[in-house]
Amino acid sequence: MKRVWWVWGAGIFAYVIAVLHRTTFGVAGIEASERFAIGPGVLSSFVVLQVVVYAGMQIPAGVLLDRFGSRTMIAIGALMMAIAQTVLAVTESLPLAIAARIVVGAGDAFTFISVLRLVPQWFAPRRVPLVSQLTGITGQLGQVLSAIPFTALLTSAGWPTAFGAAAALGVLAFVLSLAVIRDSPPGNEVVAAPAGVRDVARQVRAVFSNHAARLGFFTHMGTQFSITAFSLLWGVPYLTTAQGLTPSQAGLMLTLSVVVAIASGAVVGVLSGRYPMRRSLMVLTVMAASAVMWTIVLALPGPAPAWLLAALVVVISVGGPGSMIGFDFARMLVPTTSMGTAQGLVNSGGFFATLLVLQSMGMILDAMGGYTFEAFRVAWCVQYVIWAVAAVGVLVFRRRTRRELGVTVRPLRHAVRERRRR
Question: 378's torsion region: left (phi>0), alpha (psi -120 to 50) or beta?
Fold first, then answer.
C-alpha cells in the first residue's frame, strides 16, 4: 500500500511542477511585455502557441503513452520543460522565448495524462474517480507556486532567478520520476498498444468514434476553459487593470481558485463515483453556473466589489474538477490498451477551447485599445460561444452513450420523488 502512494506522489509532484511551468506567464505577463517589448496581442499569441502545442500534442502523447508507459513519458516531459525554462531564464530574444514556451507546451502535454493513467493501474476501481479528482486538483498547487513564491521571487530577484528556480524544480521532477514511478504493480504489467502505423491509425479512429470519449471531450471543453484562460493569462491583467486590484490581491484570487478546486474536487469525485448516471447533470450545472456568474460580473457598469470577484473565482474554479468527469466518461467504453489515446482526446477539449478564448481575447483587447475595463468586458463574452457548443455536444453524446451502454436513466425529479417516499 505504501508503494502505491509513493508512485502516485512522485507523479503528482511532476504534475505540480508542470502546472507551475504552464502558469508562470499568467503571473509574469506584465514583466514579459516589458522584457520583450510586446503588446497584448503578441503576448496572447506567446501563450496561445504554448496552448496550441499542448492541445495539438494530446493525441500523439496519448498514442506514445499507450506504447511507452507513464514513467518514460513523465520523465521526458519534466526534462523538456526544465530545459525550456532554463532557456527562458537567460534569453532576451523573443523568437527564442517563444520556442521555449512551445517546448513547455509539449512537455506539459506528456505529463497529466501520463500521471492520470497511473491511477487505474495502482488503485482499486471504486477509488479511481476520487483519486483521479485528487490528481487533477492537487496538481493545481503548481498554480499556487506561480502565484505566490514565483511571483515574489520574480519581484525581488528578477526574471532570470525566478525562471531558473522553476527550471531547477523541473530537474528534480525528472530525477524523481525515474527513481520512483513504475507503470504498474509487479505482476500486473500494462500491455503495450500495437506499434505499427496501421494499428495506431486504427486505434486512433476507434477512440475518435467512441461515443463515451466524445462525451468526455465536450465535457472537458465546456467546464475547464474559463478558469484555465483566467489563470493562464488574462486573469491577473483583468483583475489589476480593469478591476483595480493590487498584484498581491490578484495573486490571492488565484490562490483562492486552487483552494476551491481542491475542496470541490473531493466532492465531485465522490458524487461521480456514487452516481455515474448523473454525471452529465453535474457537468451541465457547472457550465451553467459559470455562465451565470460571468453574466452578473460583466453586466456591471464599473468594477465589481471584491466579494463578487471572489464569488466569480469560486464558481469558475469548480470547472477544473468538473472537467475531470470527462475522463470518467471515457473509462466507461474505451479499452485499457487505448486509454492513453482516449485521455488525450478528452484533455484536448478544454485546451482547444482555452486556445480559442485566449487568442480571441487578445485580438479584441488589441482592437479596443488595450487593458481597459470596457475592452475586457467585451473580450470575456467570447466564452458564451464555447458554452453553447459544449452543452449541445454533451446532450447529443450523452444520449448516444446511454444507448450504447443499454441503460435508461429516469428524470431526476422522479428519482427524488421516489427517494422521498422511502
Answer: alpha
Q: Identify the CATH homologous superfamily for domain 2-184+203-408.
A: MFS general substrate transporter like domains (1.20.1250.20)
Give the SS3 label for residue 178. helix
- Written as nine digits, the cell of 395 is 446532450
Interval 247-304: pLDDT, tens: 888 888 888 888 888 888 888 888 887 888 888 899 999 999 999 999 999 999 999 9
- DSSP characters for 229-267? HIIIIIHHHIIIIIS---HHHHHHHHHHHHHHHHHHHHH
- Residue carrying the nine cell digits 508512485: 7
Q: 54-75: buried (b, 16+ CB within 10 Å) or exposed (e) per residue?
A: bbbbbbbbbbbbbebbbbbbbb
**3-state DSSP helix/strand/coil percent for the chain, to nearest 5?**
85, 0, 15
Q: Please tell me the distance from the alpha carbon of residue 239 to that of residue 373, in angstroms, as a whole number.
A: 10
Cα angle 48, 20, 263; round to 5? 105
Per DSSP, 300 falls in state S
> What cell does 314 get?
469560486
Q: Is 409 helix (H, G, I), strand (E, B) or coil?
A: coil
Q: What does the pLDDT read at residue 193?
A: 53
- Please report, for the chain, the start and end positions of each structural domain, with discontinuous segments joined by +: 2-184+203-408
State the Cα–Cα distance between residues 287 and 263, nearest whole angstrom. 18
**How many DSSP H helices and E strands does the chain contain?**
21, 0
For residue 187, how many other CB atoms are within 10 A of its CB?
A: 5
Could you give the residue ranges of the DSSP H alpha helices within 140-278? 141-145, 151-157, 159-180, 197-208, 211-229, 235-237, 247-274
E strand map for 330-377: none
CA dist 387 and 218 (Å) reads: 10
pLDDT digits (tens, 9 = 90+) for 381-416: 999 999 999 999 999 998 888 887 776 666 655 555
Cα-based distances in Å from 375 to 226, 298, 365, 367, 368: 17, 11, 5, 8, 6
User: Mean pLDDT, to the nearest integer, of 57-73?
Assistant: 87
Report d(CA 52, CA 109) in Å as an integer: 10
